[in-house]
From TrEMBL:
<protein>
    <submittedName>
        <fullName>Uncharacterized protein</fullName>
    </submittedName>
</protein>
Length: 318
């Protein structure tokens, strides 16, 4: 009998600690799962959260540069997160990722998995599994990771190609970045003004009014305080934490589909609010605006607008 410690479990714990530490002050609890998948060409760290079908990463969290979001794995079919929208068990998302990956790549195995989800159950076929509480995960690292050479922005983790294109816009200088942020925001707001599958819009007059104040240069601390209060109270706080509207199971039943429909609506609306809040600073983070636009359900709008801005930048005189 051996007492050797699995180095992959230690790695998973360090990554988990960084995720939890990064969202320590986030207004709503987020559960995480981190897995280390061994493949014939090496190990891969995969991550899933309990928000947005496993795809959501707060702006204060930076993933290791060598890790990837399970639902954004380019080796798997696009749209995996939609199937898990509302899932509060990110370990299930990692298992789904592994099962799909094993159909495409021979000889893969989950060496280690650790999660902060409530009442975790050890999955079959996982080498080492550990469920920890949020406060325990905080003790795994002393400081939150920052955006450096060893860590990546959440947009890069979600869509590396789009992130590279957005980053290139910064080369045009502050004015170009500010213009791009304004154009992206306007495009997403316009799209969000159309009713979604629930019949409701994702944007309200509150967003329009505060953005108009920003454009006029009259937005101040009081303006933002009022906007924050209105947004946080909307739908009884569902935009801050849509978990209470999440389906219990993902069994394809009519009840599950109905709950998922509204969970998706609240999650998307929350990302519109988050995008608007990026304008509290000037210039806002273009990468965060693009990320929120994609996570609000308007990936095609964001991609199209980035392409239009790129053309405009290329046509500018040198």
């Amino acid at each position: 009998m051996t007492n050797e410690v699995n180095p992959d479990m230690l790695l998973a714990q360090r990554v988990l600690g960084g995720l939890v530490r990064g969202c320590e002050d986030w207004p709503a609890p987020i559960a995480w799962a981190v897995g280390v998948v061994k493949t014939p060409v090496g190990s891969q760290v995969v991550i899933a959260s309990s928000l947005g079908g496993g795809a959501y990463v707060p702006s204060t969290v930076f993933l290791p540069a060598t890790a990837r979001l399970a639902v954004a794995d380019p080796a798997l079919p696009f749209g995996m997160s939609q199937r898990w929208m509302g899932c509060q068990k990110p370990s299930k998302i990692l298992l789904d990722h592994f099962e799909q990956l094993s159909k495409r790549v021979a000889g893969v195995m989950i060496s280690a998995m650790v999660t902060t989800e409530l009442w975790p159950q050890e999955p079959a076929g996982v080498g080492d599994f550990l469920g920890v509480q949020h406060r325990q995960a905080l003790s795994m690292v002393s400081v939150a990771p920052t955006l450096d050479g060893a860590h990546q922005h959440r947009l890069t983790a979600l869509d590396p190609g789009l992130a590279q294109r957005v980053s290139a816009l910064y080369q045009g200088g502050r004015e170009v970045a500010l213009y791009a942020a304004a154009q992206l925001t306007a495009a997403v707001i316009q799209a969000a003004a159309q009713p979604d599958a629930t019949g409701d819009k994702l944007v309200t007059d509150d967003e329009v009014n505060i953005l108009q104040s920003v454009q006029r240069g009259s937005a101040n601390a009081m303006s933002w305080k009022l906007y924050d209060e209105l947004a946080d109270r909307r739908f009884d706080g569902a935009l801050v934490s849509p978990d209470s509207h999440a389906p219990i199971d993902h069994d394809g039943s009519e009840l599950t589909e109905a709950l998922t429909l509204w969970y998706r609506h609240y999650y998307h609306a929350g990302r519109v609010v988050e995008m608007v809040r990026a304008w509290k600073v000037s210039p806002p983070s273009l990468a965060d605006i693009a990320y929120c636009g994609v996570q609000a359900g308007f990936g095609s709008v964001v991609t199209s607008m980035v392409g239009a801005i790129e053309q405009q930048v290329r046509s500018m005189p040198a």
